[in-house]
# Entry
Amino acid sequence: MGGGARYPYPKEVWTPSGGWWTRPSNWKSNTAIAFAGILAVTYSVWTLSAAREWRYIQPSKPIPSMLWAKQYKEKKPELEKELH
# Structure
């Protein structure tokens, strides 16, 4: 199932993926850094989106984005009347 033993390959061939059987010694830290970067970007986009979200037509029932949207965090009394 392993595909056989590793065979000799030409050392002068360059590939952007690193060539045959690459396994960088720091792959775990590279993966952690990339994951942290993805989380940071996701958090910043989420925060910006929640701050700018505004619904001009109020939903007839509660929706998930009401938990984090700035419009509903302020708890305006007229919105409470409309939703209930």
Q: What stands out?
A: Residues 57-84 form one domain. The radius of gyration is 26 Å. The chain has a mean pLDDT of 81. The first helix runs from residue 27 to 52.
